[in-house]
Automatic annotation (TrEMBL):
Gene3D superfamilies: Cytochrome P450. This is Cytochrome P450. It comes from the Eukaryota. Transmembrane segments: none annotated. InterPro entries: Cyt_P450, Cyt_P450_sf, Cytochrome_P450_monoxygenase. It comes from Glutinoglossum americanum. GO terms for molecular function: heme binding; iron ion binding; monooxygenase activity; oxidoreductase activity, acting on paired donors, with incorporation or reduction of molecular oxygen.
């Protein structure tokens, strides 16, 4: 019997054998000839992504804790996956992420379909810089100060809700509350549109909850990119009635994307001057400086930027507020000193002062300004 006939007669066994041979060969390559083979780390982590998958997916995100232990064992630079290093050493970090770095982003890691074509997913450094430079005027200190009144309005609404909860002895999930605050501020600043998260009963906003529910799905996408991409394409092809039954959180995000596209179309049809006192982030992106090699991103990219602006700004800021507030309230010395300083600077409870005033307060300076104001008002209600 010929070798070919043997394979055809036992095709299933042959397929398994070839798959096993391929996997063994890939492991050998990863541990010996791969560009990262010389970096320290567990051999299993260098051989297969299942090392990281085990800690992230089966141990509920414990990879970050495991990485800290790996640094103690292996040093400042550790190989945690076949194609990935984790860097703790600042010198190595700044060499990798410095301005003008020669390194581009990894396509597999930055290919989230929800923010596809956004700044986050532009892999080439030069192209990413062009998009980033388009955002810079929007996030300058002067630009933010021009619209402080928007932040003050949302902050006043937020503090009034806390005061009402205190009078009614209602327990508030402060993590949810801070996320509603930051989401409203971000979307008001980016779009000049009322997002309405603070108006949600008990700070339960459907879109914020949808982002939470999709976090686990996103973890699957990190390690099983192709499967995740196929599932995303199928989800976008399904009628909303079907998607509502299969994945209500995905439907909520899809509807948010549609709303973003509608807002972008409205801005295109009713352009405002980029020199307006409060231009939206999309006013600027829709009127790029062509002399600097910038162009108007496609609608899909602009929609992705809207999702990215919300996702990137909401949780990061809310977590800082939550953790900082806890520490302020947990240390009576810090609380009393901060409260005394702010009482002198803000004599009336309903008063909102400019950040320029708060930045000159000697004890407050190291603390996020909104955190201090919220923390003290929150403490007043419950102490």
């Amino acid at each position: 019997m010929s070798f070919l006939a043997l394979i055809l007669d036992h095709w299933a066994i042959s397929l398994i054998a070839f798959a096993a041979l391929f996997e063994v060969s890939r492991i050998i390559y990863r541990l010996t000839f791969h560009p990262l083979a010389g970096f320290p780390g567990p051999k299993l982590a260098g051989a297969t992504r299942f090392y990281a998958i085990y800690y992230d997916m089966f141990l509920a995100g414990h990879l970050v804790k495991r990485v800290a232990l790996l640094h103690e064992q292996y040093g400042p630079v550790v190989r945690i996956m076949p194609d990935e290093l984790h860097i703790k050493d600042l010198d190595s970090y700044y060499k990798t992420y410095k301005v003008g770095t020669e390194f581009n982003k990894d396509g597999g890691y930055y290919a989230n379909p929800l923010v596809k074509l956004s700044l986050l997913c532009i892999l080439e450094t030069n192209e990413a810089k062009k998009r980033k430079d388009s955002f810079n005027p929007f996030f300058s200190k002067a630009a933010v100060r021009r619209v402080e009144f928007l932040c003050h309005a949302k902050l006043t609404q937020f503090l009034n809700l806390l005061q009402k909860a205190a009078k009614e002895s209602t327990v508030v999930d402060i993590s949810r509350a801070f996320r509603c605050l930051t989401a409203d501020v971000i979307m008001d600043y980016a779009y000049q549109k009322d997002f309405g998260a603070l108006s949600s009963k008990d700070f339960k906003c459907d879109l914020i909850d949808a982002f939470d529910d999709l976090t686990t799905t996103g973890m699957v996408g990190t390690y099983f990119r192709r499967t995740f991409d196929v599932a995303d394409r199928v989800a976008n092809m399904l009628p909303k009635s079907v998607l509502a039954k299969i994945s209500p959180p995905m439907l909520t995000v899809v509807e948010f994307q549609e709303n973003c596209r509608s807002n972008i179309q409205h801005l295109k049809q009713n352009p405002r001057s980029s020199t307006s006192s409060i231009p939206s982030i999309f006013d600027l992106l829709l009127t790029p400086d062509e002399n600097k090699g910038r162009s108007v991103p496609p609608d899909e990219a602009l929609t992705a930027e809207a999702v990215l602006v919300l996702a990137a700004g909401m949780d990061t800021t809310a977590n800082a507020l939550r953790v900082g507030t806890w520490h302020v309230l947990s240390d009576q010395r810090v609380y009393r000193k901060l409260k005394e300083e702010l009482r002198n600077a803000i004599p009336r409870r309903d008063q909102m002062v400019d950040s320029a005033v708060l930045e000159n307060l000697p004890y407050l300076v190291p603390l996020p300004l909104s955190l201090a104001r919220v923390g003290v008002r929150w403490a007043d209600e419950f102490h």
